[in-house]
Write a structure and sequence with these properties.
The structure is a homodimer of 232-residue chains. The radius of gyration of chain A is 21 Å and the shape is globular. Helices cover 57% and strands 0% of the residues of chain A. Chain A has eleven helices and no strands. The N terminus of chain A is likely disordered. The first copy, chain A, has a domain of 152 residues. With 232 residues, chain A is mainly alpha-helical. At the A-B interface, α4, α5, α7 and α11 of A face α4, α5, α7 and α11 of B. The first copy, chain A, binds a DNA duplex (30 and 30 nucleotides) through loops. Chains A, B: Pfam families: TetR_C_1, TetR_N. Chains A, B: Keywords: DNA-binding, Repressor, Transcription, Transcription regulation. Chains A, B: InterPro entries: Homeodomain-like_sf (IPR009057), HTH-type_TetR-like_transc_reg (IPR050109), HTH_TetR (IPR001647), Repressor_TetR_C (IPR004111), Tet_transcr_reg_TetR (IPR003012), Tet_transcr_reg_TetR-rel_C_sf (IPR036271). Chains A, B: This is TetR family transcriptional regulator. Chains A, B: GO terms for molecular function: DNA-binding transcription factor activity; transcription cis-regulatory region binding.
DNA sequence: AAGGTAGGTGTACGCCGTACACCCGTCAAG
DNA sequence: CTTGACGGGTGTACGGCGTACACCTACCTT
């Protein structure tokens, strides 16, 4: 059994590794067996490769987890044009939910990674940005969108809460984005951040009163329940 | 420096271990350094004891995590009597939030443990039960409470979502509670469960339409936002 | 032909959870 | 007073984990 590369061999012994192949193997492994069953060694084994080979494609396990989150976010349907904000948001959230149900480990990983990172990955940022865009296009003021994002909270995936939290004392982002590119790629996030904190440098800084936002969302919910109650 | 037990020594060399001491040491360690920095070995070291000593007080690390959750739930203020349901719920939720802010690792642990266990620990059950009780006392019908619990969702700690999910294929609960005791200790949960599924045996079984509940909560939120928008 | 580089390999280290055998102080029964 | 059970702390050891580091080997460029 010669397994070394042989020129004319019709069935090549192994496809070449790549970040995508590593990530989808990882996602597949997590789907069956949960995130506890996910180890670099198991992923390598599933790919027929030695564990350290993975490190040529992902820096470490945390980056791998971040990459997996991006894969998941990519599974969420893009925003549907030609509808009012309400159905657009509704569809998007329900699509996100379907993704979360497909990958039961997702919320756990998202939760823990969002706590650790200074900034969400670009894919996540893009998702949030387009979400904000839908609200803005629907006529929401910047302030109201801000509230809305907090209110949606965990239903928007579970991370908007953390997104707005103080980001100091976290793992420093290895390749933090310069503010100009930030503004160009995520216009809505930038707009919101500038309105919230009058300090455009700390783009998603802690210029917002978390406690106020929490109570705002809570009261909105309680009022909704009360209305239902009155209507008996 | 003789550290072995010596009869008349006024300062006894070490307090005797106990489950509470282990748990509070674990909570303290998690508070400073997050849940990743929490290992049986570190806890033991903090208590001046050999790692295996802990296993005389907790069965394994998962049970330790469950115990830690109970400690946290115990920090939530008990329900305030003599008020309407709305302020009672409000106070309770805000108290829970203060606890979560004190222990930033809490949501992560709760999230992962709730996914794994068949039934929440008694302390958690008690918390949920009293929460339901407040709604019921406020005049909510059983059905409406059911909706309400889903709506509050993560704001009620983050676990009611999982509580109502299908509980098959999870770690079997070592000491599952007999239904009678269940009904006696958690009357409100039982009432709700019986109404939802007409099968009183699978007390928090999957007799509820998760998708419906999710959309119900989503729409309640969206309607709330819409009202704010109209009032511009 | 020379040499850089991208990608897979092998070994090794320190951490983890915990199974298992042990040991010792206390206390009840004989 | 002896004995033996037992609750609780100990020591050793195993298998799995993430990953640092040195290597080797094809290939591509010049």
């Amino acid at each position: 059994m010669e397994t070394t590369t042989q020129a004319g061999s019709p069935a090549q012994p192994r496809a070449p590794l790549s970040k995508e192949r590593v990530l989808s193997a990882a996602v597949a492994l997590a789907d069956e067996g949960g995130v506890d069953a996910l180890s670099m060694r198991k992923i390598a084994q599933a790919l027929g490769v030695v564990p350290m080979a993975l490190y040529k494609h992902v820096a470490n396990k945390n980056e791998l987890l971040d990459g997996m989150i991006d894969v998941l976010v990519g599974e969420i349907d893009p925003p549907a044009g030609n509808t009012d904000w309400k159905t657009a948001i509704r569809r998007r959230v329900l699509s996100a939910r379907r993704m979360l149900l497909r990958h039961t480990w997702a919320t756990e990983v998202i939760e823990s990674r969002m706590k650790a990172r200074a900034t969400p990955t670009p894919a996540v940022m893009e998702y949030l940005d387009s979400m904000i865009g839908i609200f803005r296009a629907g006529g929401f003021s910047v302030d109201l969108v801000h509230h809305a994002m907090h209110v949606m909270g965990s239903r928007l995936l579970g991370f908007s809460q953390e997104l707005f939290e103080d980001s100091s004392g976290r793992e420093p982002d290895p390749d933090a984005m310069p503010p100009e590119e930030m503004a160009a790629r995520f216009p809505h996030i930038t707009e919101l951040a500038m309105a919230v904190a009058h300090d455009p440098d700390s783009v998603v800084g802690s210029g917002c009163d978390d406690q106020f936002e929490f109570e705002f969302a809570l009261d909105l919910t309680l009022d909704g329940l009360e209305r239902l109650l009155r209507r008996n």
